[in-house]
Amino acid sequence: MKRILTGDRPTGPLHLGHFVGSLRNRVRLQNDFDTFIIVADVQALTTHWESPELLKTHVQEVALDNIAAGLDPEKVSIFVQSMVPQIAELTVFFGLYTTVSRLRHNPTIKTEAKQYGYTDMTYGFLGYPVSQAADILFCRAELVPVGEDQLPHVEVTRFVARRFNELYGQVFPEPQAKISDVSRLIGLDGNAKMSKSLGNAIYLKDDPSEIRKKVMSAVTDPARIHKTDPGHPNICTIFAYHKAFNAAEVPEIEECCTKGTTGCVACKKNLMAKLEETLAPIRERRAEFDKPGRVEEILRAGTGRAVAAGTETMEMVREAMQTDYWKER
Ligand code: ATP
Ligand code: MG
């Protein structure tokens, strides 16, 4: 079976953007691929190095979010990045031939550096796409289901794999990104992508009253003051969410908004009902797995499988790079 690698930074709970951008695809593909889900705690520290205490709660929470969304822990391996030493080893080797200018030109790095207000960048932050190449290649994954912001990083991974194979011999596949039909869900503020670090998200674990508060205060078309004013759905956050969670009614909603025959409040109520259809089963599954020790047990088992895959890859890498000094010949 071919392998999938994808995952999330444990910087906070997962949200609707994760669901439509990546989780939905993970769940759909779990029967056809040997799936590895990384809880990328080292990558989280590339922006949160001063607050490692954040990780303890969020590592388990992010794993539980993945399971609640429909991943079967018996089938997929959910693991913790820092517990797989082969990823750190590969990061060092991949950094040998990846130039600084390649990393500096990465548009996602530029956007995030601005978002975090960095005037200078740490070596770890600038280089996290190299570490991410190691996250993907340690298990020789071929498919990477991700949101749009990750495309430049998957390009780095493809370069890293291709160049390694040219330099030392064929070890790695050149993985493909798998983008969903909603590859960038806008945040509640209507400005940036929905993101756990920006406070503009509806979380998978939010209860209905929380969701109601968030949806009701979401930005719609600012030019639409009266219910009968013609609206501009293309600049409306709520319309973007209808596209992601209520595709069947999109043509009708678009028409009613443009003609000013349905008001924003009714439109928001309709959306909440549709979100509930997605989120109620996730809530139920969360309750089923949210038992003391259960998530830790799942993470331990998944990490064990990841280390086994990494050990196998490192044997191939050492042989290719001629660093298998003690091996009997
Ligand atoms: P952070 O702000 O801490 O970076 P994040 O919300 O960007 O958090 P990540 O853990 O970085 O989440 O991303 C995990 C995966 O979810 C990636 O594949 C990413 O592309 C995808 N993703 C995140 N936000 C969105 C979004 N708003 N729309 C579509 N996909 C998204
Ligand atoms: Mg991110």
List the defining traits of the structure above.
14 helices, three-stranded parallel beta sheet, 329 residues, 7% strand, binds magnesium ion, two-stranded parallel ribbon, binds adenosine-5'-triphosphate, mainly alpha
Please provide a brief summary of the model.
Helix content is 54%, strand content 7%. The chain has 14 helices and 5 strands. The protein has helices at 16-29, 41-48, 53-68, 85-95, 100-104, 107-115, 123-126, 128-137, 151-168, 208-216, 237-245, 250-259, 264-289, 294-321, and strands spanning 3-8, 34-39, 77-80, 143-146, 176-179.
Fold topology:
Layout: E1 3-8, H1 16-29, E2 34-39, H2 41-48, H3 53-68, E3 77-80, H4 85-95, H5 100-104, H6 107-115, H7 123-126, H8 128-137, E4 143-146, H9 151-168, E5 176-179, H10 208-216, H11 237-245, H12 250-259, H13 264-289, H14 294-321
Parallel strand pairs: 1-2, 2-3, 4-5
Helix pairs in contact: 3-13, 4-8, 4-14, 8-9, 10-13, 11-13
Bound molecules: adenosine-5'-triphosphate (ATP) and magnesium ion (MG).
- Overall geometric form: globular
Q: How many runs of DSSP E, i.e. beta strands?
A: 5
Tell me the helix content.
40-55%
Q: Please outline the major beta sheet.
A: 3 strands, parallel
Number of helices: 14
Order of helices and strands: EHEHHEHHHHHEHEHHHHH
> Compounds present?
adenosine-5'-triphosphate, magnesium ion
**Percent of residues in beta strands:** 5-15%
Q: Identify low-pLDDT runs.
A: none
Quaternary assembly:
single chain
* Terminal residue distance: 31 Å
Structural class: mainly alpha
- Residue-averaged pLDDT, rounded? 96
If strands are numbered along the chain, what order do they take across the biggest sheet? 1-2-3
